[in-house]
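Re: that backbone. C-alpha coordinates:
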Protein backbone atom coordinates (compact mmCIF):
# COMPACT_ATOMS: atom_id res chain seq x y z
CA UNK A 1 0.00 0.00 0.00
CA UNK A 2 1.01 3.63 -0.34
CA UNK A 3 3.09 4.93 2.53
CA UNK A 4 1.42 7.43 4.83
CA UNK A 5 3.72 10.33 5.63
CA UNK A 6 3.37 13.44 7.75
CA UNK A 7 3.78 16.99 6.48
CA UNK A 8 3.33 20.32 8.21
CA UNK A 9 1.35 23.09 6.56
CA UNK A 10 0.01 26.51 7.48
CA UNK A 11 -3.08 28.39 6.30
CA UNK A 12 -2.36 30.98 3.62
CA UNK A 13 -4.40 34.16 3.57
CA UNK A 14 -2.64 36.11 0.82
CA UNK A 15 -3.20 35.09 -2.77
CA UNK A 16 -2.11 36.51 -6.10
CA UNK A 17 1.12 36.68 -8.11
CA UNK A 18 2.96 39.04 -5.76
CA UNK A 19 2.17 36.98 -2.68
CA UNK A 20 3.29 33.80 -4.44
CA UNK A 21 6.64 35.39 -5.32
CA UNK A 22 7.04 36.44 -1.69
CA UNK A 23 6.29 32.88 -0.51
CA UNK A 24 8.87 31.34 -2.80
CA UNK A 25 11.48 33.86 -1.74
CA UNK A 26 10.98 32.56 1.83
CA UNK A 27 11.45 28.93 0.74
CA UNK A 28 7.73 28.18 0.85
CA UNK A 29 5.51 26.55 -1.78
CA UNK A 30 1.83 27.56 -2.20
CA UNK A 31 -0.67 24.72 -1.98
CA UNK A 32 -4.39 24.05 -1.77
CA UNK A 33 -6.49 21.31 -0.16
CA UNK A 34 -9.98 20.46 -1.36
CA UNK A 35 -12.49 17.63 -1.43
CA UNK A 36 -14.42 15.70 1.21
CA UNK A 37 -16.86 17.97 3.06
CA UNK A 38 -14.81 21.11 3.63
CA UNK A 39 -14.34 24.15 1.43
CA UNK A 40 -11.03 24.48 -0.47
CA UNK A 41 -8.32 26.07 1.67
CA UNK A 42 -5.09 27.77 0.62
CA UNK A 43 -1.94 26.50 2.34
CA UNK A 44 1.80 27.01 2.40
CA UNK A 45 4.35 24.25 2.91
CA UNK A 46 8.11 24.20 3.29
CA UNK A 47 9.88 23.70 -0.05
CA UNK A 48 12.52 21.36 1.36
CA UNK A 49 9.94 19.21 3.13
CA UNK A 50 7.77 18.61 0.06
CA UNK A 51 10.83 18.10 -2.18
CA UNK A 52 12.22 15.44 0.18
CA UNK A 53 8.82 13.73 0.38
CA UNK A 54 8.49 13.51 -3.40
CA UNK A 55 12.07 12.30 -3.80
CA UNK A 56 11.47 9.32 -1.49
CA UNK A 57 8.21 8.31 -3.17
CA UNK A 58 8.18 5.23 -5.41
CA UNK A 59 4.95 5.99 -7.25
CA UNK A 60 2.63 8.92 -7.74
CA UNK A 61 0.11 8.00 -5.04
CA UNK A 62 1.24 9.46 -1.73
CA UNK A 63 -1.01 9.53 1.33
CA UNK A 64 -0.14 12.55 3.44
CA UNK A 65 -1.27 13.36 6.95
CA UNK A 66 -1.26 17.14 6.79
CA UNK A 67 -0.80 18.95 10.08
CA UNK A 68 -2.51 22.28 9.38
CA UNK A 69 -1.79 24.45 12.40
CA UNK A 70 -2.37 21.48 14.71
CA UNK A 71 -5.38 20.07 12.83
CA UNK A 72 -4.63 16.72 11.10
CA UNK A 73 -6.16 16.02 7.69
CA UNK A 74 -5.57 12.89 5.63
CA UNK A 75 -4.98 13.75 1.99
CA UNK A 76 -3.69 12.43 -1.30
CA UNK A 77 -1.27 14.42 -3.44
CA UNK A 78 -3.38 15.10 -6.49
CA UNK A 79 -1.08 17.26 -8.62
CA UNK A 80 2.38 18.80 -8.43
CA UNK A 81 3.22 21.68 -10.76
CA UNK A 82 6.89 22.11 -11.74
CA UNK A 83 8.73 24.91 -13.49
CA UNK A 84 9.08 23.86 -17.16
CA UNK A 85 12.81 24.70 -17.27
CA UNK A 86 14.28 24.63 -13.76
CA UNK A 87 12.02 21.86 -12.43
CA UNK A 88 11.26 23.76 -9.21
CA UNK A 89 8.04 22.88 -7.38
CA UNK A 90 5.56 25.68 -8.06
CA UNK A 91 2.31 24.44 -6.53
CA UNK A 92 0.82 21.36 -4.86
CA UNK A 93 -2.81 20.17 -4.84
CA UNK A 94 -3.99 17.94 -2.00
CA UNK A 95 -7.22 15.94 -2.11
CA UNK A 96 -8.71 15.41 1.33
CA UNK A 97 -9.85 11.82 1.92
CA UNK A 98 -11.42 9.73 4.66
CA UNK A 99 -10.27 6.26 5.74
CA UNK A 100 -13.78 4.83 5.34
CA UNK A 101 -14.48 6.32 1.87
CA UNK A 102 -13.54 4.67 -1.43
CA UNK A 103 -10.87 6.42 -3.52
CA UNK A 104 -10.99 6.63 -7.31
CA UNK A 105 -7.53 7.20 -8.74
CA UNK A 106 -4.89 5.84 -11.14
CA UNK A 107 -1.84 3.74 -10.30
CA UNK A 108 1.28 3.30 -12.50
CA UNK A 109 1.91 -0.15 -14.02
CA UNK A 110 5.50 -1.41 -14.00
CA UNK A 111 6.78 -4.58 -15.76
CA UNK A 112 9.18 -6.89 -13.93
CA UNK A 113 11.28 -9.63 -15.47
CA UNK A 114 12.19 -10.22 -19.12
CA UNK A 115 9.54 -11.64 -21.43
CA UNK A 116 10.34 -15.07 -22.89
CA UNK A 117 9.32 -13.86 -26.34
CA UNK A 118 11.85 -11.04 -26.12
CA UNK A 119 14.69 -13.04 -24.55
CA UNK A 120 14.51 -16.15 -26.72
CA UNK A 121 12.70 -15.10 -29.90
CA UNK A 122 13.76 -11.52 -30.49
CA UNK A 123 10.28 -10.07 -29.96
CA UNK A 124 9.53 -6.49 -29.00
CA UNK A 125 7.76 -5.66 -25.74
CA UNK A 126 5.04 -3.03 -26.16
CA UNK A 127 3.79 -1.28 -23.00
CA UNK A 128 0.33 -0.20 -24.10
CA UNK A 129 -1.23 0.91 -20.78
CA UNK A 130 0.91 3.00 -18.43
CA UNK A 131 -1.53 3.48 -15.55
CA UNK A 132 -4.57 1.64 -14.25
CA UNK A 133 -7.77 3.26 -12.99
CA UNK A 134 -8.73 1.70 -9.66
CA UNK A 135 -10.98 2.08 -6.64
CA UNK A 136 -10.09 1.16 -3.07
CA UNK A 137 -10.00 2.41 0.49
CA UNK A 138 -7.06 4.64 1.44
CA UNK A 139 -5.51 1.87 3.55
CA UNK A 140 -5.34 -0.41 0.49
CA UNK A 141 -3.98 2.18 -1.98
CA UNK A 142 -0.84 0.84 -3.74
CA UNK A 143 1.99 3.15 -4.81
CA UNK A 144 2.27 1.20 -8.06
CA UNK A 145 1.34 -2.21 -9.47
CA UNK A 146 4.16 -4.48 -10.67
CA UNK A 147 3.34 -7.00 -13.40
CA UNK A 148 5.45 -10.14 -13.97
CA UNK A 149 5.94 -10.47 -17.73
CA UNK A 150 8.61 -13.20 -17.73
CA UNK A 151 6.24 -15.92 -19.07
CA UNK A 152 4.96 -13.74 -21.91
CA UNK A 153 5.73 -15.46 -25.23
CA UNK A 154 5.87 -14.19 -28.79
CA UNK A 155 2.51 -12.75 -29.93
CA UNK A 156 1.13 -13.14 -26.41
CA UNK A 157 -0.40 -10.33 -24.38
CA UNK A 158 -1.55 -9.40 -20.88
CA UNK A 159 -4.90 -7.66 -20.51
CA UNK A 160 -6.40 -5.77 -17.60
CA UNK A 161 -8.45 -8.84 -16.68
CA UNK A 162 -5.21 -10.84 -16.25
CA UNK A 163 -3.66 -8.50 -13.66
CA UNK A 164 -3.16 -9.76 -10.12
CA UNK A 165 -4.26 -6.82 -8.00
CA UNK A 166 -3.57 -6.32 -4.28
CA UNK A 167 -6.32 -7.24 -1.86
CA UNK A 168 -8.98 -4.56 -1.62
CA UNK A 169 -8.12 -3.02 -5.00
CA UNK A 170 -10.54 -3.17 -7.94
CA UNK A 171 -9.74 -2.10 -11.50
CA UNK A 172 -12.22 0.24 -13.17
CA UNK A 173 -10.40 0.28 -16.52
CA UNK A 174 -12.00 -1.83 -19.29
CA UNK A 175 -11.00 -5.46 -18.67
CA UNK A 176 -10.28 -6.10 -22.38
CA UNK A 177 -7.65 -3.38 -22.75
CA UNK A 178 -4.15 -4.68 -23.50
CA UNK A 179 -1.44 -3.80 -20.99
CA UNK A 180 1.61 -5.60 -22.44
CA UNK A 181 2.18 -7.49 -25.69
CA UNK A 182 5.23 -9.14 -27.25
CA UNK A 183 5.15 -8.40 -30.96
CA UNK A 184 7.16 -10.10 -33.68
CA UNK A 185 10.34 -8.29 -34.72
CA UNK A 186 10.03 -6.20 -37.85
CA UNK A 187 11.99 -7.57 -40.80
CA UNK A 188 13.51 -4.98 -43.13
CA UNK A 189 14.30 -5.91 -46.73
CA UNK A 190 17.87 -4.86 -47.61
CA UNK A 191 18.42 -4.09 -51.31
CA UNK A 192 21.19 -6.10 -53.05
CA UNK A 193 24.23 -3.96 -53.83
CA UNK A 194 24.63 -3.26 -57.58
CA UNK A 195 21.20 -4.52 -58.48
CA UNK A 196 19.30 -2.25 -60.83
CA UNK A 197 15.72 -1.44 -59.96
CA UNK A 198 13.19 -3.23 -62.09
CA UNK A 199 11.61 -1.09 -64.75
CA UNK A 200 7.96 -1.21 -65.52
CA UNK A 201 7.20 -2.86 -68.91
CA UNK A 202 6.90 -0.37 -71.72
CA UNK A 203 3.37 0.07 -72.98
CA UNK A 204 3.10 0.55 -76.75
CA UNK A 205 0.08 2.56 -77.63
CA UNK A 206 -1.58 2.48 -81.06
CA UNK A 207 -1.07 5.72 -82.95
CA UNK A 208 -4.20 7.67 -83.68
CA UNK A 209 -4.78 8.79 -87.30
CA UNK A 210 -4.24 12.44 -88.01
CA UNK A 211 -7.54 14.24 -87.97
CA UNK A 212 -8.80 14.92 -91.56
CA UNK A 213 -6.27 12.64 -93.26
CA UNK A 214 -7.40 9.71 -95.39
CA UNK A 215 -5.90 6.31 -95.07
CA UNK A 216 -3.23 5.60 -97.71
CA UNK A 217 -4.33 3.22 -100.47
CA UNK A 218 -2.04 1.03 -102.59
CA UNK A 219 -1.38 2.46 -106.12
CA UNK A 220 -3.08 0.77 -109.08
CA UNK A 221 -0.88 -0.58 -111.87
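Recovered sequence:
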Amino acid sequence: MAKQVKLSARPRADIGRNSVKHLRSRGVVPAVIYGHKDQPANLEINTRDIAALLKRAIGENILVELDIAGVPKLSLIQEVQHHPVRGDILHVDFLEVAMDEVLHTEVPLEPIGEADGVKNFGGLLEHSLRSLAIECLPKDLPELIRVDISALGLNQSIHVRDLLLPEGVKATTDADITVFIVAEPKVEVTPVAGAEPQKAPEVIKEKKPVEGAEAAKPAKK
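The domain at 104-183 is CATH 2.170.120.20 (RNA Polymerase Alpha Subunit; Chain A, domain 2). The chain is about 10% helix and 35% strand.
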